[in-house]
Description:
Radius of gyration: 15 Å
Order of helices and strands: EEEHEHEHHH
Low-confidence stretches: 160-166
Strand content: 15-25%
Number of helices: 5
Mean pLDDT: 90
Number of strands: 5
Shape: globular
Strand order of the largest sheet: 3-2-1-4-5
Structural class: alpha/beta
Distance between the termini: 23 Å
Amino acid sequence: MGTPVRILGIDPGLRHTGWGMILSDGPRLSWVAHGVISPDPTLPLAERLAVIFNGVSELVSLHQPHLAGVEETLVNAGAQSALKLGQARGAAMTALAVSSVEVSEFAPRRIKQAIVGTGKADKEQIAFMVQRLLPRAGGVKNDAADALATAICAAHYRPALVRGVA
C-alpha cells in the first residue's frame, strides 16, 4: 500500500491517561497495543505528572511512533479541572516532543466526528466504533478507547496534516 505509519493516540488525564497505538497503511488501520497510565492519586501533583511523562516516554521508546495525536482539553468541566487536565496533557506532550515525535492536537468533537460521524457521541459509542474499526483490540476501556479513537483521527487527518491543511 505504502509506507506504514505508527501512530500513538493519547487521551490525557491526571487519574487515567489512556494510550493506543495503531499502524496506518494507506486506508488500512491495524491495532498494535493500548492501555492506561494510572498514577497513584495520593501522590503530589508533580509526581503524578512525572508518572505520566515517564509512562509516555516509555511508550515512545517501546513502540517508536512516527506521530502522535493528543486530545485537546475540554474547558466545560470547570476552570480548576481544565487546569489540572492541561497539566497532564502538557506532561504527555512534552514527553512526545522530547522524543522528537510529531504531535497533532484534536478537539474532542473532531475525534468523535472522525470515529462515529457526529461530534456529540458518548463514550459508549466511541468504544463501540473503536472495537468495530480495530477488532483485534478486543474489549477496550473508555480511556484506552478514547486514545485509540484519537490515533484513528490522526490517521484520518494525516494526509491533510502533511499538506498543512488541517
